[in-house]
Fold this sequence. Notes:
Layout (H helix, E strand, L loop, with lengths): L1 H11 L5 H33 L2 H27 L14 H29 L8 H28 L2 H30 L4 H28 L5 H12 L6 E9 L5 E10 L4 H19 L1 E10 L4 H17 L4 E8 L6 E7 L8 H16 L3 E7 L5
Amino acid sequence: xxxxxxxxxxxxxxxxxxxxxxxxxxxxxxxxxxxxxxxxxxxxxxxxxxxxxxxxxxxxxxxxxxxxxxxxxxxxxxxxxxxxxxxxxxxxxxxxxxxxxxxxxxxxxxxxxxxxxxxxxxxxxxxxxxxxxxxxxxxxxxxxxxxxxxxxxxxxxxxxxxxxxxxxxxxxxxxxxxxxxxxxxxxxxxxxxxxxxxxxxxxxxxxxxxxxxxxxxxxxxxxxxxxxxxxxxxxxxxxxxxxxxxxxxxxxxxxxxxxxxxxxxxxxxxxxxxxxxxxxxxxxxxxxxxxxxxxxxxxxxxxxxxxxxxxxxxxxxxxxxxxxxxxxxxxxxxxxxxxxxxxxxxxxxxxxxxxxxxxxxxxxxxxxxxxxxxxxxxxxxxxxxxxx
Length: 388
């Protein structure tokens, strides 16, 4: 059924377009809203009838999922709005804001049921159990399995991390409801009143899920690290380009699930004609947009390939750096001839966990350089880039 509905969307709007992505996201929100509403109503009813705090906790968990579905609908609607004067990068980050509200609600509910379950442990009561309770719980597990598959299918089709995470949350709910079912079954068969303990475990799980969700959405809003796959695709594109000498300072910025901007420094032969260099980087930028959906901005770094002294000193410095730490990388190398002693300028990319401080590195490089080629003044810009 889901594939059929996606194909209907595809006929009117390409699924990878903004309109197609929005329609698919709204579809997921509506289906999630309907199924979660049914689950919440049925679980809450049997929770009240039986007096089971664990079933009511599971019902409130479904209520938070219902609120999540509503916010998914709102999030996809607002995030689809085009860029405007106040929001030049679009509105896609609203999806993260709506998710943050849901995670706060989930966390609050977790605290409330933690207290209720604790009271039930201190003052246990017998449950009013009947076959209908087990039937409803088993049906809710089946609905959640279907719901998780639905979210994952649509999330994969539009490459939505939010829907993929929601799919995983639905599967987690399967385990939660199974725990409630086991609790009811144990009391039905043995008379052991473990409902409060199971409710306590579920409440802890809800709390943990809420806190993890808050962290994830806060990271998205602050600007989290891109996925390793995304970084690798960009690096492969740049590394495979035989027209350029190299690249560095690749930075990636996210303004929503499908809004990616990046900047990079491209090393080229300084003897190139300016128009030719512009054509090369313009081609790279277009390729990124067409194949990866990334708006790339390239900065040109000319390299003096035909200057023998430049080449000699560059190689010596690279050997010195390799000797100090094989993870050090140099770029933007320049020689300032107007001063005496001459100044060697370059940027030094330092690994995330360096062996030495910036000042220690400068002293080591200076000492090794003076031993090999004489006295030069070093002007080093230390680049602590945690992306690569």
